[in-house]
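input
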Amino acid sequence: MNRRSGAEKTWRKILISLLCVFFSVSFFAVIFACLWLSKIQAALPEQKPAAAQGDAKSPDYGKSSGGQAEKASGENLKPDFSDSEAPFGKSGVLNILLVGWEKGSDSKERKPEAIMLLSYDSSKGLIRTVAFLRELYVSVPGHGSGRLDEAFKLGGSALLAETIEKEFGLKADGRFEAELEKLAEIIDYMGGVDLSLTSEEAKALDLKSGAGRINGDKALAYSRVSGGGPDFEGTMRQRKLMNQALIRISELKAAEKLRFLEKLLPCLATDMPRQRIASLFLAVLKNGVAGIDQSRFYIPYAGAYRSVEISGTEALVPDIEKNRALLKRWLYSS
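output
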């Protein structure tokens, strides 16, 4: 009896010691993450609540002229986009809006060159990306109707996120902005990215076609290759580049990832509190990343829009209901 009592006490001490070590490591991991996150630029302004439906005139969506859209059923979808106190919200999906911008002719002007959503599905450990075309003709809260890139010019990523939420029903859990010129340096720092170039792309970059690793300057030039007008292919290049960069980052060793983060963080601006980023960072590490979905997905979806000319500029008028349903299916289908 005494032996059993002594053994139980011994195991109790071991268990308490292990728990102490676990919580100590977790505590210092959070502190470490917060110190690293202090390198991020000054916070972005908070997103205002979505404006009332009547404050801006919605465009006439009409019927799509782009062909038959994929059937957008609402079956087998998560019930909503709402968040909760859990790390990844009620849906288990984390959605981050990413904006890559360049300086305009005016030193104060910022032109959004890449508008993307980075989505992490915690149930599968899967990363998905969605590209939003700048030429989307939408209702911009408080400013009437206009192209999606105008929302960023008028109110930064806060108004851009509000516009996407109002039109497509998707609320971003956070926003990150970065100047593309700085990201070219980041790509160089991690040793370039692997891309397969078509003959057209290779000619534009003065490189050989086929698979190979390119540096930051060439990667930036690759993202700018455009055929003119609404640039679906250019948007897909940006999305492909980001996916390949994520794969490249995943291949780095632990120490290399830390050095990479040290280089990346000063280039970013975000609206997310550092403690929130730290907790999400640790939650993703714990949950794991199983892979990156390489499927092509962009808004407006093929066949779910029509092209119009507004003030001499071509724009894409989306079928809101179809695009909403397809976006929800892509991010939340089981």
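quick obs: The CA atoms of residues 50 and 162 lie 6 Å apart.
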